Amino acid sequence: GENVEQHPSTLSVQEGDSAVIKCTYSDSASNYFPWYKQELGKRPQLIIDIRSNVGEKKDQRIAVTLNKTAKHFSLHITETQPEDSAVYFCAADGTSYDKVIFGPGTSLSVIP
Amino acid sequence: NAGVTQTPKFRVLKTGQSMTLLCAQDMNHEYMYWYRQDPGMGLRLIHYSVGEGTTAKGEVPDGYNVSRLKKQNFLLGLESAAPSQTSVYFCASTNVNEQFFGPGTRLTVL
To answer: Which residue of chain A has the CA closest to B6?
Structure first.
């Protein structure tokens, strides 16, 4: 089955700097790669996703890139703000269209 | 719309006790999921359902059972709770792609 790894597990950046979180997946059949943000004590929420026929997708300060050959994808946050502090999870769907497998998460701290 | 709701929000059990967690969604979603979240391990899929009357095992199904008798509800049961089942449990639902999560249930097994 699909296995998703995520690095780093913790990340601290100064406000205004960029943050990059990287994920690798094992199943070359994966087609869908979402990213979720979970603030402390709250539920995860989708912030951006990408499909395998697209190499990059951007939404304001957030972007995701996908390298299918290397089986890795990354989340890029520019001009970080304190409200970006949260745990971020990547995921991949593997060969199953009806579920995703999550990575272990990255705890991002943005220092004012 | 309430979205995805979970009952209860908190629960403390003794080893060997049983309980049922209820997830309800009012978005007419076909797919529903139960996850457990433990520090450093992300969201691990316990069981899921692709429609009323159907269920399937996820990554960590042992010790849990589920039922989807109505489309809007997905129940997670613990027949004989163990300390290893201490966790935060999240329910989620979707029709396509984006999963909508419930607020979570914090379960402690002593």
So the answer is: A43
Contacts of A64 in chain B (CB under 8 A): none
Q: pLDDT confidence of A67, banded at 50, 70, 90?
A: very high
With CA atoms as reference, the chain B residue closest to A33 would be B97
Least confident of A50-59, A71-80, B72-81: A50-59
Residues in A closer than 8 angstroms to B48, CB to CB, are 98-99
Q: Which residue among A9, A43, A99 places its CB closest to the CB of B101? A: A43
Per DSSP (E only), the strands in chain B are 4-7, 10-13, 19-25, 31-37, 43-49, 56-57, 65-67, 73-78, 87-94, 100-101, 105-109
User: What is the token pair recorded at B96?
Assistant: 């396509």
Chain A residues with CB under 8 Å of B60 CB are none
| pLDDT number for residue A101 | 93
Q: What local confidence, expressed as pLDDT, does residue B78 receive?
A: 97
**DSSP classification of residue B104:** -
Phi, psi of B24 (to 5 degrees): -135, 140
Q: What is the pLDDT of residues B44-59, one digit of tens each?
A: 999 999 999 999 999 9
- Whether B101 shows a pLDDT value over 90: the answer reads yes
CB contact under 8 A, B103 and A43: yes
A54 touches chain B (CB under 8 A): no
Query: Which residues have CB under 8 Å from A49's CB, separation 6+?
Result: A32, A33, A34, A35, A57, A64, B97, B98
Structure confidence at residue B79 (pLDDT):
92
